[in-house]
């Protein structure tokens, strides 16, 4: 076997090993939980924002969305295992904002807009740093 063939064989093996490592990492990172949590929260925040824009803020539906947001936000630490403490602090601020929004029990669009502003701010603050 000449030197060129040996070099090509070695290069092929290195590329194969690197490809395998990348593929295994991609397969290991397939945890759908983080994306699912953020998608569900985005849905409920979007519904609340749309309710305010359309000025159709049914108190029962608003309360349902807020409670679902609060429940989903409690999954953030579990969905992002090994997250930095600062990220967990951000999620704690979000949970506090949601708790306050639920306790405010907004019954009209003005109250809803005021209640979800701190929630949106908490989301935005985290997304600016970690997205």
Secondary-structure-based class equals mainly alpha
Helix content: over 70%
Q: How would you sum up the global shape?
A: elongated
Reading the helices and strands in chain order gives: HHHHHH
DSSP strand count: 0
- Assess the beta-strand content as a share of residues: under 5%
Unreliable stretches, pLDDT < 50, 5 or more residues? Answer: none
Mean pLDDT: 90
Outline the structure in words:
With 131 residues, the chain is an all-alpha fold. Helix content is 83%, strand content 0%. It has six helices and no strands. The chain has helices at 3-28, 33-54, 59-73, 76-79, 85-104, 109-130. Helix 2 runs antiparallel to helix 3, helix 2 (33-54) runs antiparallel to helix 6 and helix 5 (85-104) packs antiparallel against helix 6 (109-130). The radius of gyration is 23 Å and the shape is elongated. 18% of the residues are buried.
